[in-house]
Specification:
258 residues, globular, six-stranded mixed β-sheet, alpha/beta
Length: 258
């Protein structure tokens, strides 16, 4: 599959997807939205990938949607376009494999939405975040969904109603990112973080992520029933057995590719 707006590579069980519209600050146009979703799905099916990293080329991580598309469409055209712009949120949630955002400089509008949608996020110390559509007469309704899942009601409403920009320290404090690193070390630190996950049991990570997203909106009792079932299932697998044996035998486990 040929891509024109992203780059992708696989190395040592880590798949990397790079947003590559630097001349447009990696704003989402239709090709990039389609290609990001296709690349994520390809990585999810690739047995040589245990974890996926999303990063970006150029000055900024992502400054939202390409506003050149916001003009002169009818309702059906707008709806089709918006659904495509936000499809990444569901793609990441349904993927078996963990996805890490690696963020430098500006991540606003759909950029902050992408960061929130990823399972984990590492930010450079120069990163800035905002749900800024309100500042141009629009509203970050799509990004509000993963933001709410990550941050809760009050903080999400504050971000999407004010359009204020927050720095990396505030993003860490409110739970939008997991870790801050010096900007010059972002690539190396992200890879180190991804390698830690890539060395875990692929099956355990995949079933664990699936279980988490399925139980997230369930009633407490139903969530316990589901996660109990998933844990029991994992215990019956060869990878689950191998992990326990390795622990008891004080050796490194030998996990298979998925």
């Amino acid at each position: 599959m040929k891509f024109t707006t992203i780059l992708h590579s696989v190395d040592e069980m880590i798949g990397t997807i790079t947003l590559n519209r630097p001349e447009a600050n990696n704003t989402f146009n239709i090709p990039m939205a389609e290609e990001l979703n296709n690349a994520l799905r390809l990585m999810d099916e690739d047995s040589n990938v245990n974890v996926v990293v999303i990063n970006a080329n150029g000055r900024n991580f992502c400054t939202g949607i390409d506003v050149n598309y916001v003009d002169g469409k009818d309702m059906d055209e707008y709806l089709k376009w918006v659904r495509l712009m936000e499809q990444m949120n569901m793609t990441i949630a349904k993927m078996k494999k963990p996805v890490i955002a690696s963020v430098h400089k500006i991540a606003v509008a759909n950029g902050i939405g992408l960061v929130a949608a990823c399972d984990l996020a590492i930010a450079a110390d120069n990163a800035m975040f905002g749900a800024t559509a309100i500042n141009v007469g629009l509203f970050c309704m799509g990004p509000a969904v993963p933001l709410y899942k990550s941050l809760g009601r009050k903080k999400t409403l504050e971000l999407i109603m004010t359009g204020d920009i927050i720095d990396a320290e505030e993003a860490l404090r409110i739970g939008l990112v997991n870790k801050i690193v010096p900007a010059e070390n972002l690539q190396a630190e992200t890879r180190k973080y991804a390698a830690k996950l890539a060395g875990k049991s692929p099956l355990a990570l995949q079933l664990g992520k699936q279980s988490f997203y399925q139980m997230e909106d369930m009633k407490f009792e139903d969530a316990l029933d589901l996660t109990n079932y998933h844990f029991a299932t994992l215990c019956t697998t060869e990878e689950g057995q191998e992990g326990v044996r390795a622990f008891l035998e004080k050796r490194k486990p030998e996990f298979r590719k998925d």
